């Protein structure tokens, strides 16, 4: 992927549970706010890295449950598995580093001598990670005795306690911080270190992330708060955000002046969002936000809005619906009058992922994107392309839609498709 070969304007490395994902936010609003900010302003030249304790199995489950974006890099199993891109290609170099002074069988043998340890599910036992549950009051003493025992057996391990319950045993060179250090070193050697890096986490296994750069979310767990008090209280590069989860990440982007921090979802006057169409990625994000808010009746039922959306489309612009039906974009948008508020008070969200613009010539842009829709219990998705042309000569000239095309993503076809956009 080309973007992995260029210096990222911003690299965000974020933990998932209780950091990017707020399990107490049923509407997932802060996550959706982050998503539209990222896709409109950062996706094209920045890198999104998820760093989670979850194994690939549990990570994939979470992605099905929550409206999460597709990261450029996924670090799973507490920094023991690094994969790239959509197809999650593993980093073999990292596996080699982890094999040093590590023997999973010895770890299993020694840990079996501690009745205080309860083995976690089979999916969470990985090549370089053995995980247990242990009660808080026993954690410290067992960790100490276990480190001794494993050292005696010639291993060099790292034991991490998280969330007041999880105990992970990893090779000494593993962990979220080490995995990030490995990535940063790799990018530096290849000549494209990120311009800025922001790390975000809330629990024990995230602590070592902060030995690299900067930030912690509000609902931080006890062990991380303790780490902060002992190690980072006066460090200006670390903040303890006052907003929860993904909203805290947006707050940190603003605090450290890392780039735009106004999510298109938070723009109160929607005509501002529709007017600001000089960036093709932003235009796609703004359009689908308009579509969601229109159907949820969260914006006014106003001809002014519809005419400004229509004004952004060339009169001959066409749209190919995932079912194959082609019509003019003007027709489609005029048809939206009939569905104003049809999703009011219902579970209905639309978000876009992997919005990637490519410039075709001085006036034309092609944008690829995935559109996701959560409607009641059903989630469906379509892969799309949009072509835009700028009306004038300068880069700041307004963009007009020339063509849109969507195709269902296999396995995510809706039972009943909307006559409008996917
Ligand atoms: C995730 C993993 C678990 C691990 C914990 C803390 O919950 O599924 O195996 O112990 O993170 O790192
Ligand atoms: Mg967490």
TrEMBL record:
* Gene3D superfamilies to which the protein is assigned, alphabetical: 3.10.450.50, 3.90.1070.10, HAD superfamily/HAD-like (3.40.50.1000)
Q: Name one GO molecular function term.
A: sucrose-phosphate phosphatase activity
Residue ranges of every copy of the Sucrose-phosphatase C-terminal domain listed in the record = 280-409
Supply the alphabetized keyword list. Hydrolase, Magnesium
Its domain of life reads Eukaryota
Enzymatic reactions: sucrose 6(F)-phosphate + H2O = sucrose + phosphate
Give a GO biological-process term: sucrose biosynthetic process
Q: Please give the cofactor(s) recorded in the UniProt entry for this protein.
A: Mg(2+)
Residues of the Sucrose phosphatase-like domain: 9-256
Enzyme kind, highest EC tier: hydrolase
Q: In which pathway does it act?
A: Glycan biosynthesis; sucrose biosynthesis; sucrose from D-fructose 6-phosphate and UDP-alpha-D-glucose: step 2/2
What EC number(s) does the entry state? 3.1.3.24
What is the role of this chain?
A: Catalyzes the final step of sucrose synthesis.
Report the family membership.
Belongs to the sucrose phosphatase family.
- PANTHER family reported in the protein's UniProt record: SUCROSE-PHOSPHATASE 2-RELATED
Q: How is the quaternary structure described?
A: Homodimer.
Q: Which NCBIfam families match?
A: HAD-SF-IIB (TIGR01484), SPP-subfamily (TIGR01482), SPP_plant-cyano (TIGR01485)
> Can you say what this protein is called?
Sucrose-phosphatase
Organism per entry = Rubus argutus (Southern blackberry)
